[in-house]
Amino acid sequence: MTHDTQQPAAQETPAADRPQARRALLDAALEVFTERGYNDASLAEIAARSGIDVGSLFQHYGGKKGLYLELWEDFREEQERRTARMLAEARSRGVEDPITLFVEGARAYLEGAWENRRIGRRLVEEDGPAGFDTLRRQWDRAWVRRNARLLEVDERRRAGRVRVIVLTTIIGGAARELGDCADEAEAQEVMDEVCGILFHLWSTSLAGTDTAV
């Protein structure tokens, strides 16, 4: 006498969770957000371009806002990884000077902004989901704190905090400017100029501190 044993059915990975489908979905979302703006973007159009049905898309991302925030998280995390790699490489070469490390990190960040200029340009537009400006400001404050630690500045002191905010703001502004560069040569020229400005401002601010009475 034999008994049939029923094997449990394999769980199928939802389309929106598969790496290739996820990438196609985010690429389609970026295209539509870039062409239409966030408010006028259609979830149906994003789904059609990605090849993923609207129901699955909505289930996993909750709509346009979820897709927009996913794009932001991907961009932010990649920028942080890129900068961390550059700093690790610089330290492995024996670089210890805080401003030299800071500028190397700034260049890595700007290179990432140039390579990902489509999404970087989209994310600085005012046309975004409700609450995104608050999220972006929170990340900017965290960025300033990381830079303060890198520069060995006590951000609890107003002068030190302002110094780091100014340098960080310059990098952010330059990242936006890179979105309008015509080619890589022009982008590299902007990066070189910004790195020179960062060195100059830091040395000038330290000189002012040393001579203050």
Can you walk through the features of this model?
With 213 residues, the chain is an all-alpha fold. The protein has two domains: 14-62, Orthogonal Bundle (Arc Repressor Mutant, subunit A); 73-211, Tetracycline Repressor, domain 2. Helix content is 73%, strand content 0%. The chain is built from nine helices and no strands. The protein has helices at 19-36, 43-50, 54-61, 64-92, 98-115, 117-123, 132-150, 158-178, 184-211. Helix 5 (98-115) packs parallel to helix 8 (158-178) and helix 5 (98-115) packs antiparallel against helix 9. The longest helix has 29 residues, at 64-92. The N and C termini lie far apart (99 Å).
Number of helical stretches of at least 4 residues: 9
Largest sheet, strands/sense/barrel: none
Mean pLDDT: 87
CATH fold type of the largest domain = Tetracycline Repressor, domain 2
